[in-house]
Each structure stands twice: as C-alpha cells, then as structure tokens.
C-alpha cells in the first residue's frame, strides 16, 4: 500500500517523526479525527447537542474504523506515537507452558507482584514465575497526559459495580466504573501516577486492627527505600534518592494550575510536601514519572529484573484456581494461555497479587471464602473464611467543571498535535504530566481524628477539553441527562476540573461471586454513603473548591461554572448543602483504590483473612500481597503503600526486615537479620 500525506495533521506528523507516518487507512482515520475534533461538529453554549446525535457520532466513529470499540480512542493516538519506543524492555515467555516447579509462583505482575518478583530474584538461587493476565505496556500508556484515556481499553479489566442505591444516580444503571490494570505494572500502568504515602496514623491504626508490625516506623524505611526522588520541592530528610521508583513533579504548568495553587495560599491553606511531616497541605503533584514517561512498577522493578535466569514471566495467562494438597498446602496454580489449560507448581509459596477486586474472587473460586458464597456455586470448601470479599473500602469522588479564558489549559482540538510534537522530540512539555497538576489534603469538621479526610485534585483540562465528549461519556458511564446537562456545555472550551475525594470513608462494601466461572466479573458493591457523615464531609470539600474559585488569583483565568441545575437535584437551591449532597450522589465515582477484601489481622479475628506476615489463615504456603490485605484504607492514593508492602514482604521472605525508624532520615538502611515472623498458621 502506498504511503501519502493526507491532511495538515498528517503532514505535520510526518515531519515530526521524519518519515511518512500514515497508511491510506490511517489517513482516513486522521481525516475522521479532524472532523470529530472540529468545533463545528458540536455546538458550544446554549444549544446543547442532543444525546442521540452524540450516540450517532460514536457509532460513526466506530464504523469509520477509528475505533475497534468506543473504548479504543487510544488507537488513534497510538498510531501517532508509533516511532516512540518503550522506556524499558521486558524479557518474557521464556518458560515452557508445561508442568514446571519454581520456588515462588506469583499471580499478577501489578504494583505488588512486579516488586516482589524483582526483589526475590536478587538472590540468584531463588526461582520465581510471574503469571500476568495482560500484556506489555505500550508507548501510549507511558505518555502521562493520556492516563485517563487508558480506561476501557484492552489494558483495563473494565469492571463495573452493581447498581448502587445511595450513589451514582447520574450513571447508566447506577453502575460505577472500576478500572483496574490488566497489563504489566497493573494499575500503576494506568493510574494518575500520584505519589502519596498516606498518613502515619493509618499504619498505627493497622497495628491496632491486628496487623502486628505494620506501624508507621516499620513502613517509613520502605517508602525511603523505593524512592528515587528528583522533586526539588520535596522536604529534606523524608525521601530516598537511590531507589528504583522515580518521583518527579510537574514539568510545565498551565495558567489554571498556577492560579489554583496561588488561590490555595490566598485562601489560607498550607503549601508544601504532603509526604513529609504534615499531610494537610497542597503542592504541585509528585508523580511516578521518569524522564517524562510513566514509571510503573513494570518499568521500575520487573523490566530491569526480567533478564535474570531465575525469573520467568508469562503474559496473557489467566490463573483460574489455586491447587492444594490434602494437607491444605498451596502447591501451585492452574492457568489458561491461548485457550489451553496448564498447571505450575511452587516449592515454597504461592503468592496472590491480583488486587482488591480479583484476589477475593480467585480465593473464593479456589475454596477459601464465606460458606454461603462457596455453597451457592457448589465450590468445594478448602477453608471457610468469612472475611474474603468483605470490608471493601474505596475513595469515592465527585467533580466540578469550570470553563476558563482561552489558552489557560489543555484543549485537545487545539493542543494535541503541537504538544505531541514537543513531547515526541523531548519527552518534556505539557504532556509530561497526567494533568492532575495540583493535589493536596484537607481536614473537614466531620473528620474522625487528626487525619485529613478529603483529597482534592486540580486538573489542567475540563470535560471535553482532554478528549472527545463521546469518549469521556463512555469512560464515565454518564446517562443521557447527566452527559447533556453536566458535561457537554464545556465542549471545546478551555477549562479546569476539580475532583473532591473522601479519603477516610466510613462506609464499606463487598465483593461477591457472579458464578463459578472466573471469566464472569465479580459483583462489586461499593455501598457508598451508608453513613451520612461521609456526604457531609464531601459537601464541605465541594464548598471549599467553590470558595477557592472566587479568590483573586483564580479570577485571573476567568473561571465560569456551568450552573444549570443537575437533573434530579432541581428541588434544591443551587449550591446549597442539600444541592451539593445531591450532586455528590449523582456524580459518583471511585479513585480505583479498592482495599480490605482479604484483610490482615490475627487468627482470633474471624474476619481476618491473612496473618501479619500475609499468609492466608487456615491453609499453608499461600500468601496474599496486594491492596486487599490493608485492614483500613490509607489517607490518599494506594499505589505507594502497596509497593511498600511488597518491598517489606520480600525482605520478610529473605528472613530480614529494615529496622523500624521514624522520619526524618534519608537513604540509611539497617537490616534486622534472623527475622522471626509474627504469626504463620500451622
């Protein structure tokens, strides 16, 4: 097929990358993309496009070949990024898909699994197999600004909650999307890359709940150990500089970012490093980004270790069951690859690291879980464990949208090509962050203790500015009325979005089986807002954002909130507390931070699933190492604590731990050897 340059964008892209980039088919796709991105397609202002027209555009986009599904907008941008290379290589699939024996079999190459595999294989006498259901990362997910666009793609499990009763009223069927990474690096490969350790009190609370040995002074050395901090604004004495995980800050800000950052100060809020001695403050976001590209655990840990002869990695392989012997000892797993079934065995441990949603599903399908769930689907009981799938905790959020004056934010139709040009040449510029450029924590008057209970994000784009509305409508699962009334009026306008998240929720939910087939997604019930104080706290966070938007600094970007009453909330005065609570219960999402569904605790607690050494109660040689073991959710993003857990468990399995030490200190490691486990079930 001959190559030709078709449109202005095609010519520009060809010149960017030094050679003709697009085939005839790709030219056609670019032409359709040009039309879809044109402001002439969707009217702006009062004449809001009909929902049916929006659906028609989506359908035509699919039929045109731009998408394989609505969830494949990224294929277009991926074609633009073709000449870019991945920031790391991964040596995988060396292992034969036959019966083999390893010291450790790790299920899942996510935030925890990749970390564990890399650390355990530092000992060349230890053999490890990692089994991952997804594939490698791509250059697309490594471009930070496209973080949100990785949702509903082939590297996302694409879960949805069951219909909610007290939230998500503005979403189709009241179902909340629950993205989880189905790729090397897991959710660290699709998240917003925010680096947040949580609050020291979080870990003291873990210990109070029976997670002996997991207090803040035990965790702090592992936060330092993982870090390679390059952020000049980080507080001295609280960060590491020699670890595998790079932490950087926003490389280039937008006017909406600096206006909000200054507005926070004008409102009297504290600015500084929230990972240091005081979490209740705001800062330009610390990101897990290295040289302008995502620094997932695949890049930081698994990739550099993947060439080791004692490490095998299987991709596109789905573990379906844990194998036990007659003594309830985990001896291996069953998995599928290319529609064929295999078994693999472990000499020492089987370690499950599939996350807060998939881990309880796999445990139950393997015979460990609540009796009623196992009997309902005729699953032979290996060990009755009532806590499996219970205690689900996540961070609910809602958001506000503002339009701003021209050239103050990201606007896809205007900025995609020139910013891709800069990024492809330098890995710098405005595409070198996720767009969530200011983040911080705030304590409402409804907080339980001294910890902040709210996290607020400022985004350098508004709905429709960061991607076509029909695609974002698909990602967010908006129903017709909500999409038309809340999102579309901001189409093709500069703007900003503010996310208000509750980081100390009181409500808990459940993960239950849908069937005995692992291919059927589990039933996820977040059960948000069963405690009215959760709504009160979020409403206070919404009020805070509205007040900051009125500061002199924010007025320089001329913020204008679309103030049409949200469908379903018409009975309340606009922006009254009742209206804000209604908005929160209508526009409800989760930050993908599901924890607690295989909680850590002592054997005397019937709801504890794993011991403080993360061995599953009631069986032998089976461990869980991921977010599901957290007995209570951390105050902030969960990726960083998950990596720290995996770092510490790897040391435990080596018979040592870093000596507990409270910050501040930097890059000083002292191991306690001959480590004695707190508790391992016989």
Automatic annotation (TrEMBL):
Occurrences of domain Glucose-methanol-choline oxidoreductase N-terminal (ranges): 181-204
Gene Ontology terms, MF aspect: flavin adenine dinucleotide binding; oxidoreductase activity, acting on CH-OH group of donors
Domain of life: Eukaryota
InterPro entries: FAD/NAD-bd_sf (IPR036188), GMC_OxRdtase (IPR012132), GMC_OxRdtase_N (IPR000172), GMC_OxRtase_C (IPR007867)
Keyword vocabulary terms for this entry: FAD, Flavoprotein
Entry cofactors: FAD
SUPFAM superfamilies, per database record: FAD-linked reductases, C-terminal domain, FAD/NAD(P)-binding domain
Residues noted as binding FAD in the record, renumbered to the chain: 183, 319, 592-593
Similarity comment: Belongs to the GMC oxidoreductase family.
Protein's recorded name: Glucose-methanol-choline oxidoreductase N-terminal domain-containing protein
Annotated organism of origin: Tetranychus urticae (Two-spotted spider mite)
């Amino acid at each position: 097929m001959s190559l030709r340059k078709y449109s202005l964008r095609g010519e520009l892209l060809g010149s960017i990358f030094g050679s003709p980039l697009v085939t005839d088919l790709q030219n056609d796709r670019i032409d359709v993309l040009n039309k879809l991105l044109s402001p002439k397609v969707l009217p702006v202002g009062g004449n809001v496009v009909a929902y049916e027209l929006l659906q028609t555009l989506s359908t035509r986009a699919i039929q045109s070949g731009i998408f394989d599904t609505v969830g494949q907008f990224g294929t277009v941008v991926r074609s633009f990024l073709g000449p870019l290379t991945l920031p790391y290589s991964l040596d995988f699939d060396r292992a034969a898909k036959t019966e083999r024996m390893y010291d450790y079999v790790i299920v899942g190459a996510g935030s925890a699994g990749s970390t564990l595999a890399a650390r355990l294989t530092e000992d060349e006498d230890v053999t490890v197999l990692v089994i991952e259901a997804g594939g490698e990362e791509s250059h697309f997910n490594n471009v930070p600004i496209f973080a949100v666009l990785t949702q509903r793609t082939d590297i996302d499990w694409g879960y949805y909650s069951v219909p909610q009763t007290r939230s998500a009223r503005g979403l189709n069927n009241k179902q909340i999307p629950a993205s989880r990474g189905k790729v090397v690096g897991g959710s660290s490969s699709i998240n917003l890359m925010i680096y947040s350790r949580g609050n020291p009190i979080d870990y003291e609370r873990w210990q109070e709940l029976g997670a002996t040995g997991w207090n803040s002074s035990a965790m702090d050395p592992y936060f330092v150990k993982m870090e390679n901090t390059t952020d000049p604004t980080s507080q001295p004495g609280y960060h590491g500089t020699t670890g595998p995980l790079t932490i950087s800050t926003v490389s280039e800000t937008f006017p909406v970012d600096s206006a909000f950052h200054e507005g926070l100060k004008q409102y009297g809020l504290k600015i500084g490093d929230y990972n240091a001695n005081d979490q209740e403050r705001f800062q330009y976001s610390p990101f897990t980004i290295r040289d302008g590209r995502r620094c997932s655990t695949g890049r930081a840990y698994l990739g550099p270790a993947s060439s080791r002869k004692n490490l095998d990695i299987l991709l596109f392989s789905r573990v379906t069951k844990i194998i036990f012997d007659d003594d309830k000892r985990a001896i291996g797993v069953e998995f599928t690859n290319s529609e064929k079934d295999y078994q693999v065995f472990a000499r020492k441990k089987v370690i499950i690291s599939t996350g807060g949603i998939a881990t309880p599903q796999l445990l139950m399908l393997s015979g460990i879980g609540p009796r009623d769930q196992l009997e309902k689907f005729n699953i032979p009981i290996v060990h009755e464990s009532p806590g499996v799938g219970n205690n689900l905790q996540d961070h609910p959020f809602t958001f506000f949208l503002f339009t701003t004056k021209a050239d103050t934010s990201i606007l896809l139709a205007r900025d995609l090509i020139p910013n891709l040009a800069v990024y492809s040449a330098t890995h710098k510029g405005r595409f070198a962050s996720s767009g969530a450029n200011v983040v911080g924590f705030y304590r409402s008057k409804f907080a339980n203790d001294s910890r902040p209970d709210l996290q607020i994000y400022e985004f350098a784009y508004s709905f429709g500015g960061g991607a076509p509305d029909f695609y974002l409508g698909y990602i967010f699962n908006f129903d017709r009325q909500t999409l038309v009334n809340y999102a579309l009026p901001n189409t093709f306008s500069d703007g900003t979005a503010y996310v208000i998240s509750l980081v100390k929720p009181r409500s808990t939910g459940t993960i239950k089986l849908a069937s005995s087939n692992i291919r059927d997604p589990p039933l996820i019930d977040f059960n948000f807002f069963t405690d009215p104080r959760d709504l009160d706290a979020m409403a206070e966070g919404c009020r805070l954002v509205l007040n900051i938007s009125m500061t002199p600094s924010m007025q320089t970007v001329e913020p204008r909130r679309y103030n049409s009453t949200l469908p379903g909330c018409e009975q309340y005065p606009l922006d009254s507390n009742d209206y804000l609570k209604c908005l929160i219960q209508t526009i409800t999402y989760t930050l993908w931070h599901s924890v607690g569904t295989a909680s850590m605790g002592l054997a005397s607690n019937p709801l504890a699933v794993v011991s403080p050494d993360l061995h599953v109660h009631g069986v032998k040689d089976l461990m869980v190492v991921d977010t599901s073991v957290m007995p209570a959710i951390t105050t902030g993003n969960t990726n960083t604590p998950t990596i720290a857990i995996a770092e510490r468990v790897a040391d435990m399995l080596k018979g040592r731990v870093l000596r507990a030490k409270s910050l501040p200190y930097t890059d000083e490691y002292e191991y306690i050897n001959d480590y004695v486990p707190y508790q391992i079930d016989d």
